[in-house]
Design brief:
With about 290 residues, the chain is an all-alpha fold. Helix content is about 70%, strand content about 0%. The chain is built from 14 helices and 2 strands; from the N terminus they run H-H-H-H-H-H-H-E-E-H-H-H-H-H-H-H. It holds the Pfam family MPAB_Lcp_cat.
Length: about 290
């Protein structure tokens, strides 16, 4: 294949990936986020920018959804108020846009994005199948969603990122994300990697594999609406995400645990896949 043909393939792949993640308004949002002048919440050299710009976020994002589902009240809110089955790519686009705006966008736009999410959270309330009431504004639930996400993004970046962070960088990433979490309503979010691990451990007695969580895992891992050509790469992505989950998180979701294969075959496939995503997305950067 000629080099110019390879370049065209790269551009098409990058456009397709960007469109899936960012949605139809992706190019317009990207231009506004990166080209609008004004102060930002985070300087160019902050770890949050390095992590959130990396292709490893594809693996980390899926791992975060699986881990978050283990809190019965958080999962009840998703099951009853989120259209993750009917419009999974729309939900993905909204989430990725929020991350992009708060990480890279002008401070005013970042604050508006936070205010919008807080407004949505005020409308999300109900009663879980076990009879307990929940509210999305509950700081305790907000913290669970936050720490599951941050732990997943950080672990994915350490395994599959183009330039893994040192200890100071990892602590800096947790501290950066804490700034956004506090604005969303989390009280005293963790600000170091050690604090993040301690906080995750403190939630374990509350976690359980509900029917809704297992249903969401099956949908995310086995039956997402994808074209045939995308199913094999997505399967590798899913395997990489599952392999990053701790053993205690897999049993409740009925997910397999094969350490030797995960440390070799799955991780190698993950590196190839993330590297391919990085290569394709670079053609659409800027």
């Amino acid at each position: 294949m000629a080099l110019y043909d390879l370049g065209a393939v790269r551009t098409r792949m990058g456009s397709a990936l960007f469109g899936m993640v960012a949605g139809p308004e992706g190019p317009e949002n990207r231009a506004r986020i990166h080209e609008t002048p004004g102060p930002r919440w985070f300087a160019d050299d902050r770890p949050i920018r390095q992590v959130h710009a990396d292709a490893s976020m594809f693996v980390g994002g899926l791992r975060a959804l699986l881990l978050q589902s283990l809190h019965p009240l958080a999962m009840a809110g998703v099951a009853e108020h989120s259209d993750y089955r009917g419009d999974p790519w729309g939900r993905l686009a909204r989430t990725s846009t929020f991350l992009a705006v708060t990480t890279f966008g002008p401070a005013d736009d970042a604050q508006r994005a936070v205010d919008k999410v807080r407004g949505i959270h005020r409308r999300v309330r109900g009663v879980a199948p076990d009879g307990r009431p929940y509210e999305a504004t509950d700081p305790h639930l907000l913290e669970w969603v936050h720490i599951a996400e941050v732990d997943s993004f950080l672990r994915a970046h350490q395994l599959y990122g183009s330039a893994p962070l040192d200890q100071a960088g990892r602590d800096g990433y947790v501290a950066d994300t804490a700034e956004v979490a506090a604005k969303l309503g989390v009280i005293d979010p963790p600000r170091t990697e050690a604090e993040l691990a301690e906080r995750l451990s403190s939630y374990r007695p509350e976690l359980a594999g509900t029917a809704a969580a297992r249903d969401a895992a099956r949908f995310l891992l086995l039956t997402p609406p994808l074209p045939i050509l995308a199913r094999a790469p997505y399967a590798a992505l899913a395997a990489a995400a599952v392999s990053m989950l701790p053993r205690w998180a897999r049993g409740p979701l009925w997910l397999p645990y094969f350490p030797p294969a995960e440390a070799t075959v799955v991780r190698s496939a993950g590196h190839v896949l993330v590297g391919g995503i990085r290569w394709a997305m670079a053609a659409n950067a800027g």
